[in-house]
Design a protein that fits this description.
CATH architecture of the largest domain: 3-Layer(aba) Sandwich
CATH class of the largest domain: Alpha Beta
Largest sheet: 5 strands, mixed
Order of helices and strands: HHHHHHHEEEHEHEHH
Strand content: 5-15%
Number of helices: 11
Strand order of the largest sheet: 1-2-3-4-5
Radius of gyration: 21 Å
Helix content: 40-55%
Length: 285
């Protein structure tokens, strides 16, 4: 029986790009060499065929048959050699995933890393003031320029808090899509800056997107102009979405609040009350 959990396997498949039968940019030769030299296993042994015999299927078979020591060697090797077998540098999200699985398998505790604990801490006053002024100035821009600058602002905000935002913040009009990591959870992001408060339609659309993703994904919907009460009522309860408005963002910066604690409090209140939006004014932080 595999020492990896189902969720760990699903996350690894996503990070390794295994959907099409491949694993990163490994060729058959480099895949064979990697397993022989790093793990000490002949990955092209018949016991790893797993049906089609593709690299992805062999990896899945290895996960099920490997010892804990072999899994740790595999994951450590991927961390060390990621840039060799991928077309990009290893992201903070991927590194954290691999290292956290290694720590769980070996039973060790992770050493505190100040650079990665920013989400749990309050911001430096100077950083908070700079971001707060940037947020205020965005309201003075024309819609097209404002959308682009809002994209940059959110990415900068998440980076400051150490949330490892995905680089694929994608603009559609004034809509921004992306994702970030918080408390080892993956959050999908949707943000809108428009004059009128958001109604139920946009919330249902975002919930629909979440429904197409992995079951552990959560959603954060940021609406600078707020959300209508009728829209929230129509959206209903028991969803995987929590919401923020412009006032929330401003207060997080003004009071130099922990972003992690703020989102965690919103998630808890949503679980307790079913309400997807609870203002920071109502949260006990």
């Amino acid at each position: 029986m595999s020492s990896l959990t189902h969720i760990e396997k699903q996350k690894l498949e996503r990070e390794l790009g295994m959907g099409g039968g491949y694993v990163l940019n490994f060729s058959n030769r480099t895949f064979d060499d990697f397993f022989r030299e790093v793990v000490g296993v002949n990955i092209y042994d018949q016991r790893f065929d797993n049906g089609s015999g593709s690299k992805a299927q062999r990896m899945r078979a290895f996960w099920d048959l490997a010892t804990v020591a072999q899994l740790v060697m595999l994951l450590e090797g991927l961390v060390e050699a990621w840039e060799i077998y991928s077309d990009a540098r290893i992201s903070n999200t991927t590194r954290d995933l691999l290292e956290n699985i290694i720590l769980r398998l070996t039973g060790k505790e992770k050493s505190p890393n100040p650079a990665k604990s920013a989400a749990t801490q309050s911001l430096d006053e100077s950083v908070s003031n700079v971001l707060m002024q940037k947020l205020i100035k965005l309201s003075e821009l024309q819609p097209q320029a404002r959308g682009y600058e809002f994209e940059r602002f959110l990415k900068e905000l998440f980076e400051v808090y150490g949330l490892a935002p995905r680089a694929s913040f994608r603009m559609v009009g004034e809509q921004i899509d992306g994702s970030f990591q918080l408390q080892n959870e993956t959050y999908l992001l949707e943000a809108k800056w428009q004059n009128a408060p958001i109604g139920a339609g946009d919330l249902h659309t975002f919930e629909g997107k979440l429904g197409e993703k992995a079951s552990w994904s959560r959603g954060l919907f940021v609406s600078i102009s707020g959300l209508t009460q009728d829209g929230l009522n129509a959206f209903g309860r028991g969803k995987r979405v929590v919401c923020m408005d412009g006032f929330d963002l401003y207060e997080i910066l003004r009071l130099r609040m922990s972003f992690e604690a703020t989102v965690a409090a919103k998630v808890r209140r949503a679980a307790e009350t079913g309400r997807p939006f609870v203002s920071v004014r109502e949260l006990s932080l």
